[in-house]
Amino acid sequence: MTTRMVIVDRDGVINRDSKDFIRCAEEWIPIPGSITALARLSQAGYRVVIATNQSGLTRGLFSEADLDAMHAKLHHLLDEAHGAIEAVFVCPDLPPTPEDRKQRLFTRIAHELRVDLAGIPAIGDSLRDIQAALDTGARPILVRTGNGLLTEQQLGEDHDVETHADLAAAVDALLAETAG
User: Fold this and answer.
1) Out of 11, 17, 66, 100, which one is annotated catalytic?
2) Residue ranges per domain, the chain?
3) pLDDT at 98 over 70
4) pLDDT at 180 over 80
């Protein structure tokens, strides 16, 4: 039986992204419906795990305290919505790296949480999110927020990656599957 877990990318999926990096909690602004969507997943018994590349930390654009404050804001908003996330996995490495940073995060999640990623939904907005899911046996789900529209173009017209308008729509589809 597949573990009821979902891996979710952060910037561009849960919160608005910026080409200049999200540098502090004040700049960390949830995409409408994303907090409620995460809460609904956890309320339905899913283990919700965040996997996020944060090279801005290594670049010196923000501190660990700033990153902690962003994640504290996420946890607070989820508490208010009666939801929770199990863990946030962060990769601060600069690209390029010998191995894909997001794939390493997925591998860490599997190892540290002792879970087989086969079939685990992995929701993201970038090509690296989709590729990391495919490379680790997870189930890639693309959202059109953040970089999602560009990613969809990169995948081409004939792609077979499950795609939704946003995190809320992706969660609706996942919850409909488990209810049916």
Assistant:
1) 11
2) 5-179
3) no
4) no
